[in-house]
What we know:
Elements: H1 2-6, H2 25-51, H3 54-61, H4 64-76, H5 82-99, H6 103-108
Helix pairs in contact: 2-3, 3-5
Amino acid sequence: MCGIEFFNLEQDGSFVLGVWRELELYSIVIIAGLAALLAVITTLVSNAYRLAPSSQIGVFDNSYLVFGVVWSVVLFSDVPDQIESLGIVLILMSAILVCTPNATADREK
């Protein structure tokens, strides 16, 4: 930040070379809260991988993408296109397949 101002590298409209505005206390608190939530979630997910089969946890670990689409539609009115919809359907189908009993495991019992 100081180097951008010192060497006069500032470019209007540039994310990297533009001078960023100062954060208010409210924004800092929100960022700190989100960072704390992310730390808790990451710890819980790593424990889940330790305790359960990784094939099941992996599918549900990626289920946040579906929730991301829901929030995208609700908050930004951004409707997914065909490829995005196909990805969501594949994630949901894999979750269903992982939750169903394996046919070969049933025969062995």
